Records
---
Amino acid sequence: MDHVKVLHCADLHLGAELSSLGNLARERRQELLSTFIKITSICRNEQVDFLLIAGDLFEGSNIDINTVRTVKTTFASIPDTIVAISPGNHDYMAIDSPYADGDWSGNVHIFKSDKEMIDFEEKNVCLWGSAFRSTYVTRPLLESIHATEKNRINICVMHGDLVSNYQLSNYNPVSPLHIRYTGMDYIALGHIHKSSGVMNVGSTWYAYPGCPEGMGFDELDDKGILIGNVYKGSVDLEFRPVCSRRNIELKVDITSAKSDVEVADIIRYDMMKTYGDSYRDNLYKVILEGALDEDYVPDVSSIGARLKGDAYYLKVRDNTHVRLDLEALARETSLKGIFIRMMLEKIAGYDAKDNTEKAEKYRKAMYVGIKAFENEVPLNDY
């Protein structure tokens, strides 16, 4: 065979508590499991040769038996796909790990040591992998992996932290130098929850697919897998979204709004305009921005309640500021006046250099400072 078809995923974290979602946590855990089943259905329907799972399939060792049983049964339902699992820092190989069970189906291969190779001669593939055996792995596992069958397609599955050369990490540092000398054709990585795109060092290609489902507002927008072909010395892989819902951070300008009802209408319109007919399926962190009159302070609880039917989950944060005459305040002979003058000078300087990002940061910092002078900044609000 001159190529094999692979599906590369990682960081499913099945069994995660998701406690920040409150009453929705149990339902959301089931959705993570449904997305896992969707991934295996793709393997079946599209004749995938290898399902590469680069760590953290499970949230940990203490996973409920029904979840583990579902995973095992689902893998057994795709006997024509070889499943390769490289345990990560969350689901590391241990005596109490589900991976220590002896009843996994014959198509499932779990790497259990620092370096293993499985030869699939009929597919012209040497499959390499390693396992975390504790939460932390400081030694680069990849440095001991080198292709021995140069004419085969060599694929490595590994959970690890991509770093620059000689940089340290507690999560199996993987550097360009290590990648270059492996002789691998493709290295399927896990650990980073954001898709990296497919990259290469020399003739070795590597990638993070990211997680298939975002589990917080630090994991935004579409999440998915990588799928395609691996050849000798090249790959043809594409990112494919598989998530059932998206975590979205939505900044909404409510300048001059007068009431919570009006603000809720603005947010709803922004969600509909940006995300179309499926906008209600998403999880939102809405950040209110803009200048408001002194006689109106948004009530984030009230606004959230008015939008209850417009999102699967929604929380609102108020980052607005009172409409102020900054020039007048800057002329005050007070500590606040001095602070505002200094910040306006900084903002003007960055505006003059067309550095809008820096200018905006200082502008936001100025308004936070003004609130602080009035004792209006709640703990951990910024």
---
Amino acid sequence: MKENRIEQYASLLIRRDQLKKEAEIMEDEYYREFGDEFYNVYEVKISCIELKKKIHYCQAARNHGEKIDVEMMDAVLKEEMRDYYTQLKNLFANVQGVKKMKVSPEHVVLAVKKKYRELAKMIHPDLHPFTQEDETLMDLWNRAVKAYHMNDENGLDEIGILVRHRLQELGYEEESVVVIEDLEEKIRSVNAEIEEIMNTDPYQYKMLFEREDLVEEKHLELKKELDSYLHYQEELEGILHTFISDGEVTVEWKMD
């Protein structure tokens, strides 16, 4: 009975890892499909934030009867906006990186899944305490996880050879006896992880890509959002221009 529960636990761990991998794939696909639009929206949104900060700066100067120092304003805002533009730069890099990624053929994905499962049963740290106690095995396991997520079939083959060699050096059989404390609690915990992964983004993107109408709806949603921000940007530029040109205008400004 206990052996069956251990087998169930092992299967749950492997399923959890598979779902995590699928979620990563869905997230990549999401940004491959919508990444450029996300970037465009965020770029204009940042512009609006910066314009609002400039208006606030100008209004504060006007309220105190001070001359608006445009150069000083730009210097102050450059520092305040640094994190926003860093995020924009990172978003651009992520979108471009996803576009360059190669999609692995299905037969490779299936082969990788099988080889990862074999390695997991041999040295998964949650199943085999000796893995955590041995630096070499732990390093091999981390490499296996990385190769699995990258669909690196050859890498998993090489790691499998090294794992078997290390197990022999340590005197363990490939199918070592598994001793797991609090097994039932661990099973409940992994089941909870699986449920959480399946019910949150990015795994939920999977359902989005199963329907073309939902994909098109998302494109339209992002277009509307971009148009809204572009319109808002024009309004803010008009208000700022009034300040800079030293015209008389009263503005009620609130920071979102």
---
Amino acid sequence: MSEKEQVNLTRRNLLGGTAAAMAGLTIAPGIILVETAQAKPKDQPVTDAVRWGILININNCADDCTGCVDACQEENGWGKGSSDESKSRPDQKAQWIRKVKVTDRETGHAKTLPMMCQHCESPPCVDVCPTGASYKRIDGIVLVDKHICIGCRYCMMACPYKARSFIHETLTDQRSYAPRGQGTVESCTMCVHRVDDDQQPACVEACSSTFNSAMIFGDLNDPESKISKELARHGGVRIRADLGLNPGVRYQGIYG
């Protein structure tokens, strides 16, 4: 381990210990955060032998389908039906996952696809975070520790996928496993609380329950996993691969 890595690890451990001590405390007027879920506390520890990823085939993604967005909102308590949904300007609302339209400039052919945190191997949001609130687990999931997020929004500016949101409103209905708080930044967690309980992310489960089945979740490091076999057979594209971030979310049906 290099000297820089040792310094970063020590800093992260210190900040993590401080965050754990503050869990459940009021950190500012009107902001009360509950204790975050444990990382894989049951049968096995989080390990870098695994890298979680999602493969999305946009050819199977119906333009008018919002099943993945609806499932994420219901599971994690943001957006439709939440206490912050009806107050802020539309461009300030949370969007852990959203449908975006992509168009082939040559042919004019257009499709929609789900866009969320891409869970990069080299996440720029982590690089610019001054407190260590933005971090990547060794299994590839990128998260925000709300207890030490100061709301500077550097991570929002650094993310090339516009995958993060800032919470402007006072919240009253956050989930115990997905804490949210006014003045902090949030994004897709790949439903880490479900992954750590041996379940699929809510968006993938919802998509799989319909005829679309456009999303596959699994271990990118395991050549025998469903996602790896599908990538080996038909390939996959990383959005903005030119940036060298190696996202954990891959797409099929995007060309050029």
---
Amino acid sequence: MSQQLAYVIITPYTLSKSRTGGILARLITRTGLELVGARMFGPSRELVEQYSEAIVSAADPQDRRIQELIRDYILQNLSPDPKTKRRRRVMVLLFQGGDAVRKVRSVIGNISPDRRGGETIRDTYGDIILDERGEVRYFEPAVLAAPNFEETQFKLRLWAKYSDTDGGLLTDTIAYLPGETPQRTLVLIKPDNFRFPTGRPGNVIDFFSRTGLYIVGIKVHRMSVAEATEFYAPVKEVLRTRLKDVVGSRAKAALEKELGFRVGPAEQQQLGELLGPLYGDNQFENIVKFMSGRSPAEADPAQWKAPGSEKCIAIVYEGVEAVRKIRDVLGPTDPSKAPPGSIRKEFGQTVMVNAAHASDSEENAKREIGIINVAENNFRRVIEEFYGK
């Protein structure tokens, strides 16, 4: 089965309703495809017009009337607001795998006023409401996708063309009340959520949606050893010092069991002082390996800056008290101490394998967003590597 690249566009309305997580979970679990790219867009009028022109197609099995409604919807709802000139948020997801275009389209589904149940994404999140004369009163497609391989290639090249000017880490897309001061914070959906096709990445995002914050940046990222080492550098010294008592106690128990003599309090403290930093360094190596696929000790220096083997999703959330709100939903580092209903309680396993990371301050958020380089355009790179420049 030939490899294909497929896209899904999440509309501004769907984003505003925080339905992104549920949609992503369905796409991953029901298609079995790999999420290979994601980017936020604030589409310009030029991009919207060119994209809308390619919507009505004889190759699309969707009813022509619905196609025309989608075309008109795109022009009206993806373009910048005509009154405020503020650009609207749009998220584009890229999936790769065998028969990807058909699989994505089947999960998204078509739109019909006669739909039943919630089998497809559009059944659940889309709407078309007609009046007694059969005229459309309300229309929301929820997501957009191409009907075939050829149209996918054309449309993805179009979005790639505008991905620098119209996409990245969005600014001035959210209106705030007077006196409100928004913050930005970084979330990493960690590699333990991507071991096999599962709804976990989407489910974790769905938990974060309860904060009422806005996604303004997203990137599918593979941390290099260098990035992971820099990202977690503040943790290294903490590990070297904080674990001394734990290491001393465990070393005491091991020695008493193995050698059969008692280790006194002074000697236990000395063991902690001696072994604590070594244990902390080992834990730091494990963290870097967990996030990048290679520890600093085993990585060739020439590979330090190369993308790692482990995948994560980096998301920038914006809003009032963003740092606190995200940390509250995430829960403490140790899942065993996390409260019910928190992400780490629901999805975490250990202190390291704990589902997600979130910045603990505005200052650290800026530092971490810079290290991950969320604005970097690897979205276009994925498209150009697949189709050729």
